[in-house]
Structures are given as C-alpha cells and as structure tokens.
C-alpha cells in the first residue's frame, strides 16, 4: 500500500535535493519523493510498489540498503553505484511501531560521485607530485654537485668522459696534475659516479708522519707495539671496504709501505700490524700526485711495479692556465658562492675580470678560490676593481715566466709569455707599428710573431 503523507509534508520532502525512499517491513517501496526520479533516472511509478529484493536483483539499488537494514535490524550506511554511474552514499534509518517492531525504513542518499572523482584525482596528483619532488631532489643534488665542479673546457670534458667510462669498474686510477687543479675533488666525483656502497676514505700521505702511516692504513692488532692501543686499530683500508680509498700525494708513501700497498692491490688482502691473519678487502683505489713519479722511480724513491699497478687508468688534469673557459666559469661561480656564504654583493668589473684571466694561476683552482674568498671578505666596496687585486695579479702577465717550472721547457715558458704579452698589446694598440714601438722591437718582428702564434 502506498504511504499517504500529508500535503504539507509532501511539499517539504519533495523540495529536498536528496532522494527519500520509504520501504515497509516486507521490503516493498511505499513512498518515493520527486528527487528519486532524478537520482535513479526512473519514474516514481516504476519504483513505488516494487520490492527492494527485486530491484536489487535488477541492480537498480545495488546493494540494497533497505534489504540490509531488514536483515540486520540496524541502521546502515553504504556506497551504492547506480545504473547511470553515480556513486551514492546511502543511509537506511528505521522507523519503529508502538511495539518497537520495524514499521518502515527511510532511505536517503548523498551524491558522492564528484567527491570520489576528486578523491581519486587528488590521489593521482599527490602521486605525481611525489615523483616530481623526488625527481627535483635528484636534479637539485646533481646541480649542486655540478655547480661545485666546473669543467666546461674541452680538456676537462675529456677528463670527465674518461672518468665516466671507468667509474663503475674496479680499475685503479692515478690522477696527476699540479697542486690545486682539483685531483681530490675529481677523486670524490669518481667515487660518487661509481655507485659503490662503501665510503670515500681519503688520506694525504704527506700529512702523516712516516712512522704512523702504516698503522693508519693497515691498522694493528691489540698491543701490537709499544704505545699501541689495547683495543687495536681498524685501518683506513678496512674503512674503505666496498668504497673508495683515495691516497693523495702517493709519491710521499715510504718505500716499505709501498711494498705492502702493492701486495694489497695484487692480492686484495693485507695484514694488520702484528697480526698473522690475512684480511680480505674490496675497494677501488684512487691515487693522486703532483710530482713526477717516473722521476722518483729513477731516484729509487718509488717502486716501478707499484707505479704500473697504480696507473692502470692514468688521468692527467690540466693546469688552470690551460683552460680559460673554466677560469671564467670558476670566477663567476666562486664570486656567487662566496657572496652567498658571507651575505655580500660583490661584483667584478670587466677590467678586474681581464686581470684575473691574464694571470697564470700557479696555485690553480685553490689559489683562485682563496683570492676570490679574500676579495669578497676584505674589500669594503661592492664593485671589485683591479686595484683591489694583489699586486702580482694586477700585473699578472709579468709573473708568467715563473709558471710551469718543473713541468715545461724554457722554450715553452718563453713562448707562452710572448703570446700573453702580444695578446695584451694587441688589445691596447690597434696598429702593429704602435705595438712595435711600445715593445721596443721592429714592426716586421711583431707581424712575424703574430703570424707565428696565429694571433
Ligand atoms: N673544477 C673545479 N670546479 C670547482 N672547484 C674546484 C675545481 N677544481 C678544484 N676545485 C676546488 O679547488 C680546491 C683545490 O682542489 P683539490 O684539493 O681537489 O686540488 P688537488 O689537485 O687535490 O690539490 P693538491 O695536489 O694540493 O692536493 C678545492 O677547494 C676544490 O673544491
């Protein structure tokens, strides 16, 4: 029997945006308001008088909340999917008769289609955001590493490409180059690129007294010698397990330790001092030096066999004066870095940059870094002028002949200096006659030299 409700009530219930469906205790629908038609895309007359069990079978109300209330005898709330693909949050409430038996079940819904869509959209966006965040962190890290290592010049690009090719191998690498060219930084970079899980363990062979270097490297057994710790000591070789052992200034390694290092490289085993138990290790060895090891071999101060073992991959890092592109980049990079670090706003004028570019940087990147840091910290004005530079840099080209001693022949040094002076003069004076006059040579000499050096 359809349920008769008063006109006023009908008006109120029909005015509701939500559907209201009333079912009797047998599961027959006895009332449905106007909104029901819209919610279920059906005429009221096809709903009223039908059994919720039948409608559930036809998947019109699926699952049927009224059926569940009847079965459980309790109020129920569930999510229903309609035939027109709406997602509804349906609640079924009980109306009891005077004897507290179920008389009617009143069901109403809330359309959560959009909320559900939004939820899954948010979930998707959150997932995408998370992966973008991770990607960003990865690139930020790379950028940080990259911004530290400046290597844009063709010569450094070549160095990096060799490093890339050998990074994930076990091959021992020997890095050579003048002091301050970046050997330690590149050794670290090589470790990062190697994806080895262990640590990067660095030791400067020249900074440890000869008598201690063996125990530093190989460690010792408890009480191995007078003054040794009772606990014994783990050496750097063991600390570098599964990582990289970086031996800086390898030329300073005492000859007796060289023999032990050779055994370590060949056998991958070593003994702690005072121990008869060999220990196995797995690490990548990177060595660096700014001295000519072949010269040391001739003097009997370095083992030839060790040299061959160390230099399986020999990477020579060019001095800064041979990579002008890097010099300019480093200059800009370091000014920015120190400005940030010390909260300063220093700028370099063209003339200052010119002076710095003309200087030959015998101390390489380390010297450049020290000078830029000092300028940023000590000069009061924000604009850094040539007169703020140390005297030897302000007239940098004059210091040039001293550069490269030990690495270059006199002829090479003289030629480099001549090139620098000629370049400088060419910038200042347009005619070769004027250049000749200033440099106190004949004009044909100037022309010949410009031609010789391709200037
Ligand atoms: N290509 C580069 N880009 C950025 N910074 C660099 C570069 N090369 C070197 N540096 C910086 O210059 C300084 C000296 O570099 P590093 O200690 O690696 O030189 P080195 O060749 O190992 O010197 P030494 O032979 O004296 O041990 C460090 O502060 C390093 O970070």
Automatic annotation (TrEMBL):
<dbReference type="Pfam" id="PF13426">
    <property type="entry name" value="PAS_9"/>
</dbReference>
<dbReference type="InterPro" id="IPR035965">
    <property type="entry name" value="PAS-like_dom_sf"/>
</dbReference>
<dbReference type="InterPro" id="IPR009057">
    <property type="entry name" value="Homeodomain-like_sf"/>
</dbReference>
<dbReference type="InterPro" id="IPR030828">
    <property type="entry name" value="HTH_TyrR"/>
</dbReference>
<feature type="coiled-coil region">
    <location>
        <begin position="115"/>
        <end position="142"/>
    </location>
</feature>
<dbReference type="Pfam" id="PF18024">
    <property type="entry name" value="HTH_50"/>
</dbReference>
<dbReference type="InterPro" id="IPR003593">
    <property type="entry name" value="AAA+_ATPase"/>
</dbReference>
<keyword id="KW-0547">Nucleotide-binding</keyword>
<dbReference type="Pfam" id="PF00158">
    <property type="entry name" value="Sigma54_activat"/>
</dbReference>
<dbReference type="InterPro" id="IPR025662">
    <property type="entry name" value="Sigma_54_int_dom_ATP-bd_1"/>
</dbReference>
<keyword id="KW-0805">Transcription regulation</keyword>
<keyword id="KW-0067">ATP-binding</keyword>
<feature type="domain" description="Sigma-54 factor interaction">
    <location>
        <begin position="149"/>
        <end position="377"/>
    </location>
</feature>
<protein>
    <recommendedName>
        <fullName>HTH-type transcriptional regulatory protein TyrR</fullName>
    </recommendedName>
</protein>
<keyword id="KW-0238">DNA-binding</keyword>
<dbReference type="InterPro" id="IPR025943">
    <property type="entry name" value="Sigma_54_int_dom_ATP-bd_2"/>
</dbReference>
<dbReference type="InterPro" id="IPR027417">
    <property type="entry name" value="P-loop_NTPase"/>
</dbReference>
<dbReference type="InterPro" id="IPR058031">
    <property type="entry name" value="AAA_lid_NorR"/>
</dbReference>
<keyword id="KW-0058">Aromatic hydrocarbons catabolism</keyword>
<keyword id="KW-0175">Coiled coil</keyword>
<keyword id="KW-0804">Transcription</keyword>
<feature type="domain" description="PAS">
    <location>
        <begin position="5"/>
        <end position="55"/>
    </location>
</feature>
<dbReference type="InterPro" id="IPR000014">
    <property type="entry name" value="PAS"/>
</dbReference>
<dbReference type="Pfam" id="PF25601">
    <property type="entry name" value="AAA_lid_14"/>
</dbReference>
<dbReference type="InterPro" id="IPR002078">
    <property type="entry name" value="Sigma_54_int"/>
</dbReference>
<dbReference type="InterPro" id="IPR025944">
    <property type="entry name" value="Sigma_54_int_dom_CS"/>
</dbReference>
């Amino acid at each position: 029997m359809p349920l008769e409700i008063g006109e006023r009530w009908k008006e109120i219930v029909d005015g509701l945006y939500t559907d209201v469906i009333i079912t009797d205790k047998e599961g027959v629908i006895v009332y449905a308001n106007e909104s029901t038609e819209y919610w279920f895309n059906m005429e009221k007359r096809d709903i009223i008088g039908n059994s919720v069990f039948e409608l559930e079978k036809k998947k019109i109300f699926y699952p049927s909340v009224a059926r569940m209330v009847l079965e459980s005898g309790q109020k129920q709330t569930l999510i229903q999917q309609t035939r027109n693909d709406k997602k509804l949050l349906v609640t079924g409430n009980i109306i009891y008769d005077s004897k507290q038996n179920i008389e009617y079940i009143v069901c109403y819904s809330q359309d959560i289609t959009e909320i559900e869509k939004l939820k899954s959209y948010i979930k998707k966006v959150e997932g995408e955001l998370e992966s973008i965040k991770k990607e960003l962190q990865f690139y930020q890290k790379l950028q940080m590493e990259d911004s530290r290592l400046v290597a844009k010049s063709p010569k450094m690009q070549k160095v990096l490409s060799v490093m890339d090719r050998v990074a994930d191998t076990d091959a021992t690498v020997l890095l050579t180059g003048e002091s301050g060219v970046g050997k330690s930084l590149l050794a670290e970079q090589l470790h990062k690129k190697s994806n080895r899980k262990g640590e990067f363990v660095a030791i400067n062979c020249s900074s440890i007294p000869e008598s201690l270097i063996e125990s530093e490297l190989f460690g010792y057994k408890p009480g191995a010698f007078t003054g040794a710790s009772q606990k014994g000591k783990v050496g750097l070789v063991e600390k570098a397990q599964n990582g990289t052992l970086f031996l800086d200034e390898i030329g300073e390694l005492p000859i007796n330790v060289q023999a032990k290092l050779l055994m370590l490289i060949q056998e991958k085993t070593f003994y702690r001092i005072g121990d008869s138990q060999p220990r196995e290790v797995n690490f990548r060895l990177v060595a660096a030096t700014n001295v000519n090891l072949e010269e040391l071999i001739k003097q009997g101060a370095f083992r030839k066999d060790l040299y061959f073992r160390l230099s399986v991959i020999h990477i020579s890092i060019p001095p800064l004066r041979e990579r002008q592109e890097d010099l300019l980049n480093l200059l800009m990079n370091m000014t920015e870095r120190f400005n940030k670090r010390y909260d300063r706003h220093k700028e370099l004028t063209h003339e200052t940059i010119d002076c710095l570019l003309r200087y030959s940087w015998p101390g390489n990147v380390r010297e450049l870094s020290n000078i830029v840091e000092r300028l940023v910290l000590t000069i009061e004005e924000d604009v850094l002028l040539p007169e703020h530079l140390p005297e030897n840099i302000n007239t940098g080209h004059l210091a040039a002949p001293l550069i490269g001693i030990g690495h270059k022949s006199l002829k090479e040094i003289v030629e480099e200096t001549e090139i620098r002076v000629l370049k400088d003069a060419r910038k200042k004076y347009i005619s070769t006659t004027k250049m000749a006059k200033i440099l106190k040579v004949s004009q044909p000499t100037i022309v010949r030299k410009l031609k010789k050096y391709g200037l």
